[in-house]
Amino acid sequence: MNAASAHQVTKIVAGLRHGFEQGITRPESWRRTQLIHLRDLLLERGADFERALQQDLGKSAAEAQVTEIGFVVAEIGHTLSQLRKWMRAKRVDTPLALVPATAKIVPEPLGLALIITPWNYPLMLALSPLVGAIAAGNAVIVKPSELAPATSALLARLLPEALDRRAIAVVEGAVETTTALLSEKFDHIFYTGSGKVGRIVARAAAEHLTPITLELGGKSPAYVDRTVPLADAAKRIVWGKFMNAGQTCVAPDYVLGDADTLAELAPHLTAAIHELYGSATKDNPDYGRIINDANFGRLVSYLADGRIVTGGDYDADARHISPTVLADVDPEAAVMRDEIFGPILPLIAVDSLDAALAFVTARDKPLAAYVFSDDASVRRRWERETSSGALGLGAPVLHLSVTDLPFGGVGASGTGAYHGERSFLTFSHEKAVLTKPLRPDTLAATVMPPYTRAKSRL
Ligand code: NAD
To answer: Is the CB–ligand 1 distance for residue 268 below 6 Å?
Structure first.
């Protein structure tokens, strides 16, 4: 990794700002060209990106395609098909008292955007926001995660070959470089990662009154009741939980249900783990590994927080932890205080639906909540009585592949959203434009002094 110094950061920022001020990023044609070049890069160099993701996270080629490379390719396709419509000014009604006048909303680029990326989906979480920033006509700096060094280095090498260097740059580095970046003035900062660093970003942005999007994490619950086929629910939970070895921001963090349901669900979870990953996950290329030793140690310490129903094997050299289900977990244990962000799934018994709802609402608002119930009134109660970035009824994770659904958190799980048109709007200013002809002059008769009773009623 080629970490940029503070001096280099200042120079890069000045160069890109100059590019933006020259107006090169504004034309639709420029935006389209960049997006097409980015898509071509992903398609032509897919094998290189797959290798980097394998190196950083032990990610299989298939998972890399579905959750990272193909995901961004699809996002670019959707953006190209909608861009003209999104860029168009939108007429809005004017109040009668202002007639004659017209009013419209004109989206304009914000300027220079900074995208700070985490390691868990190091390609997708760098490029998906980049698509929105380019579509909206911004200059952009992408700061990949230093904890995924192979992907970071590849992005730093390939993006400048494919994209317009006058307006788009990749800056590699760790805390020191990110701190240098954050001391500069940006027009938008888009941060994905932990709430701890999210607070650092928000404080730095406040100095320059820079608007921010914070894509954070949290403990996303999965509630299961007896009305659903438990084997099917178990399979979906296992799929959502153990992809990328549990290092997914929207993975189900824990399962809530009554004790009988959980006792019945547990063997189905074990069976689903075996069906998806076999019994020896260490050598299974479909199953990822833990990003670094610090997270490995943290996760292994959670294994003592409950009774191991299945899994619980680990190997420090390979940074492998087998898919693990924990029962009899104390809700106050560390595994239930922190976001797990790894392949450990606690089962938390509650007495009733009311208790499950109370359990979730008493805690930070999660990035997602998942409900497995065929009872419409149960689903409705989750929709109305809990708050989360998203609600998945019957399936985890999938909501983020629906381009027209805004993706983001609420409260402690984040602020702002993206994907599809929401990405375009996130990186745009919606300028209010009012046009009022000077003739005929109706203002004197309606809003200007001297005031009369009739004017005050307007
Ligand atoms: P991370 O450690 O890679 O950090 C993210 C970024 O912050 C990196 O680019 C890093 O360089 C920078 N950074 C780290 N410490 C910093 C500091 N002191 N000052 C300035 N910059 C700093 O990733 P992470 O934080 O471990 O990511 C995991 C978290 O991200 C989890 O909570 C997860 O739920 C969340 N997440 C959320 C989403 C989402 O879309 N909402 C997606 C993925 C991950």
So the answer is: no
